[in-house]
Amino acid sequence: MCRIKILLIDDDEDDFILTRDILSHRAHGNTYELSWCNNYAEAINAMLKCHYDVYLVDYHLGKHSGLDLLNEAVRSNCSEPVIILTGKGDNKIDEEALRLGAADYLTKDELNFDILTRAIRYALRHHNTLGQLRSSENKFRILFERSKDPIMITDAEGFVYAANDAAVEFLDTTPDRLNNETLFTFYKNPEDKELFNNTMERLGSVKDMELEIISSSGKTKYCSISSFIQISQHGHKELYYSILHDIPPIKHNEREPGTSDKRISVARLANVMVREVYNPLSNINFATEELKNNPDRYRNEELLDIIRKNCERINQVTSTLIEEAKKE
Fold first, then answer.
1. pTM
2. Judgement on whether residues 88 and 164 belong to the same structural domain of the protein
3. DSSP letters along 136-155, please?
4. Which among 123, 151, 191, 309 has the fewest CB atoms less than 10 Å away?
């Protein structure tokens, strides 16, 4: 088991000795590795270099305060947890410390092994959870921005909260204009909106629902939409995460017998094949790259699900095109 590296930032050496004795509990003497720093400048340098797992910061640091140090560390993107220590309890300092981003606030007079180590454990656990959330958010944003498929985040009324470049291009619009419209304004048939909303309310998701879109330039486009509900970060609103799959129309009534027309049909099918398979392959390629260096088992399950769904999409497109080719 790796030792937890702790830096105590306190200008009083006696407090360092007391803290060291508290953490030197005979049953857990090898769990914690405590170091000491007695001035502001050395402290911020150590925090910026991320040398420790957690920081215990005294409120009084000469001409500075522990809150000054916490504030500078947060503004400098120091992500390791900081626990503020003070000689006497003060609700105002407590609230200000937590507002600035402290993991906890402890009174020195009440410190013992159980209280201090519990605060350290909880701070590290919370830090790891936040790290996993940030990692997932960053990976989702990369997938969101790089995806060749249109992806949009809307509310139940269709108002757009976010849309990737592929969505803006597919709808022939601009980000500013899209922010002032709803996704439903692009639906050609009003009954599609009603069907979509009813399905989302009843099942919480929609899978491969086909519909016609009228883009901002007036073009009619065929696509399928898959959506699911996600509660917003603060739990105030339901957000719809939707992905659109472009379905290029194949006009059967334009086909005429003859060698030349057959060549045109083959070329058209080949073009459809390229367009329909390229996007899922891009998503599969991204997911496999993420799998190479990702130790998160739950995240890997999400990536494998992306691969599985896109493989199903390729299989569906291939089967459809084979059937169309047989009719030629």
1. 0.48
2. no
3. HHHHHHHHHHH-SS-EEEEE
4. 191
